[in-house]
Amino acid sequence: MEFPGFWDSFTALIDNNPSLTNVTKMTYLKFSCLESQPAELIKHVKLSDENYEKAEKLLSDEYDKPSIVRERLYQAIRNLERSDSSTDFIRNNFYQIGSHLQFLENVGVLQA
User: Fold this and answer.
1) Are residues 71 and 51 in the same domain?
2) Which position among 40, 59, 78, 83 has the lowest Cβ density within 10 Å, counted as fewest Cβ atoms?
């Protein structure tokens, strides 16, 4: 999942939950939600209420780059296989393009 999609989900379920402390949110972020490079980025940020915002900023500065997301999605659209004229093939490409365009709209790259 690209970062904006991940962050939208994390924000809705964890970040906007007023019953969770920042240290609890950071615990979810560090130990339950992230893997590979994003996890490495905040691995050494000490688990504390104060450092939750620091971890958010580190992730945002590194991964929340609409221009990169836009380019990756445009590339995915350009890389779709060319149609063999079958209805199923055309429908599948149509759904994939629609999904990519919806994602671009959700992250603010396209206007509705």
Assistant:
1) no
2) 78
